[in-house]
Design a protein that fits this description.
CATH architecture of the largest domain: Alpha-Beta Complex
Low-confidence stretches: none
Distance between the termini: 6 Å
Largest sheet: 5 strands, parallel
Helix content: 25-40%
Structural class: alpha/beta
Strand order of the largest sheet: 3-2-4-5-6
Strand content: 15-25%
Number of helices: 18
Number of domains: 3
């Protein structure tokens, strides 16, 4: 069995004064337990006011979006189109953020009586708002097009529409190139002239702010009809936010907290049907884990393998009867995605193990034939997890044509910036600091292997000690005893939810526990009963069925605590990520 990893107490070096007595005193002032205070301080929440915003987020705390560059122009253009009865095209990219953004915009406008032509990207057409989609909107008679989760870098298609007097509003959050598209309005918090203080919104979050502002403008203008409440779309905002892995801080925490409550009401037929397909019982309280691991992968699957329409149609469904066949289609794609994902990851691992240069690489680039381009991003996550370095996975074209791939970051590396330094080898690239997509000619693959490795290596040198070889998984939030793991602790941790990117789920350590019982489940997972003194707790270690464990072993574990309900009884279970002697 492995020795204990080199874990560090989160925030310990920056906050050495956090003694037990200090935690108790702060907790009394904040109305929180010492363990909640410890966790908050480890996440840079050190002031009472900030802590209250985390513990009790409120929609009224959302900052005014009017300071977003292009926001006022976008609202004006869309409101004018609504009043004039203009046919509006809505386009979204093929991932969860793109599909939820398109669903929010199209269903909100339809509620207002707008004639909407909606379309989402296809994997075959490539990511972004391409020329084919622009032509489709022109042929459909759209005079205004809203491009969601794309458009910032799609100069050609937007210029083509502008030449035909078709206006385009871009609602996006990806990195902004040196030159902007000729859109009538570009809303993207990453624009240099954008004064909105929070830059971490996904496109669905931007779309929510836009819809709320449209409603306000119509209300002030004396709109005669019923106005929709944008809060009804917060379930989709939460989906886009969690699944796009933007930081769950500031505005995003508020949007996701309320979006989870909206989703938990199960009012949207499509999500109700998909939760059933995912095996989530109707009495289960929905949390961010269900979005990231149950709903998100399923909604992403159609766009990864073919067309994203099934996911869009499912989210737009207005009844259970309409939703059920789309849910079945989405599930079929998800099953196919799983098969491809496991194969690509396995083959990528084999290629990397066979390459003697792998150990010395700052970043990894792997290319393979017969890999669906839409699935390589998930495989990149697997490579990152195993090798703890940024990874770019490329799907080679059997005809030697255009190669497409996805990159995932690790250790704070800005992969979009690294790709920009390889731009002369690429046909296209786009994304953000943590993840991006690329396309290039097959003849440039070998050069990209070296160029991307060099670009990431240079960043690591720049960052120095700030660039830890970690994604946050080397930190823990305290040492506990098994007897500390009561349901009351989970109630305390629930106050801090949602957890995710930028606000990780708490991890604790238990040391000196004795293995009371163990068994291997499905030849992959390790189930344990651990004992300290007279206290026992159940534990599960997924994917660690190969670990050598015996009854009576004294072990240490790092874990997150979770609830497990069986036969009507709820107890605490340790979700182990590492075990050692």
């Amino acid at each position: 069995m492995e020795s204990r990893p080199a874990y560090r107490l989160r925030g310990a070096l920056a906050l050495p004064e956090l003694t037990d007595a200090a935690l108790e005193t702060i907790g009394l002032a904040w109305g929180a337990s010492p363990i909640v205070v410890r966790i908050l301080h480890g996440r840079d929440v050190t002031e009472r006011e900030h802590a209250q915003r985390v513990l009790d987020p409120r929609l009224q705390d959302l900052r005014n979006p009017q300071s977003m560059a292009g926001f006022t122009d976008a609202v004006s253009v869309i409101v004018t189109a609504i009043h004039e009865g203009t046919r509006v095209g809505v386009f979204g990219d093929y991932d969860v953020d793109g599909v939820t953004t398109a669903t929010i915009l199209s269903t909100f406008l339809r509620y207002l009586g707008v004639e909407v032509v909606a379309k989402v990207a296809s994997r075959q057409g490539g990511y972004g708002f391409n020329l084919e989609a622009a032509r489709d909107f022109a042929e459909a008679g759209a005079q205004l097009v809203l491009a969601g989760d794309c458009g910032t870098s799609d100069h050609e298609s937007i210029a083509w529409l502008a030449e035909r007097d078709i206006q385009v509003v871009v609602i996006d959050h990806h990195q902004v190139p040196d030159s902007k598209p000729v859109a009538v309005a570009l809303i993207n918090p990453h624009q240099p002239d954008c004064a909105f203080p929070f830059k971490g919104l996904c496109s669905a979050g931007v779309a929510f702010f836009l819809c709320a502002a449209i409603r306000t403008a119509l209300q002030k203008g004396g709109w005669a009809g019923t106005l929709p409440d944008p809060r009804a779309w917060l379930d989709l905002v939460a989906l886009g936010t969690v699944c796009d892995m933007v930081p769950l801080v500031e505005e995003n925490r508020i949007l996701v907290r309320y979006g989870l409550a909206q989703l938990d009401s199960r009012q949207r037929p499509g999500l109700r049907a998909l939760l059933e397909r995912a095996g989530v019982s109707p009495d289960t309280t929905i949390n961010e884990g269900h979005l990231g691991f149950s709903l998100g992968p399923r909604l992403n699957a159609p766009g990864r393998l073919s067309l994203a329409e099934p996911a869009f149609n499912l989210l737009s469904a207005r009844s259970d009867a309409e939703a059920l066949p789309f849910a079945a289609e989405v599930e079929k794609f998800n099953n196919q995605r799983r098969v491809h994902q496991e194969r690509i990851a396995s083959e990528a691992f084999a290629l990397l193990e066979a390459d003697p240069r792998t150990a010395d690489r700052a970043a990894l680039v792997v290319a393979g034939q017969g890999w669906p381009a839409g699935v390589v991003g998930i495989a990149a996550n697997s490579v990152v997890s195993r090798y703890r370095r940024p990874a770019l996975i490329l799907a080679l074209d059997s005809a030697g044509g255009e190669v497409r791939g996805s990159v995932r970051s690790f250790g704070g590396i800005d992969v979009h910036r690294a790709l920009s330094q390889c731009a002369d080898l690429l046909l296209r690239f786009g994304g953000h600091k943590a993840a991006a997509g690329v396309s290039l000619l097959a003849e440039n693959v070998e050069a990209l292997v070296e160029a991307f490795d060099a670009a990431v290596g240079a960043q690591k040198l720049e960052l120095g000690t700030e660039c830890a070889d970690t994604d946050g998984s080397d930190f823990f939030d305290g040492v506990l005893k098994l007897e500390d793991l009561e349901l009351s602790l989970l109630d305390e941790l629930d106050r801090l939810a949602p957890y995710g990117q930028g606000f990780p789920r708490p991890r604790f350590i238990v040391e000196g526990a004795v293995v009371e019982r163990f068994k291997v489940i499905k030849q992959r997972h390790l189930s344990l009963v651990l004992r300290q003194g007279s206290c026992t707790r159940e534990a599960i270690a997924f994917g660690k069925g190969d670990r050598s464990v015996h009854k009576g072993d004294r072990v240490g574990v790092s874990f997150t605590p979770e609830r497990r309900t069986w036969a009507g009884r709820t107890k605490v279970q340790l979700l182990i990520d590492e075990i050692w002697q």
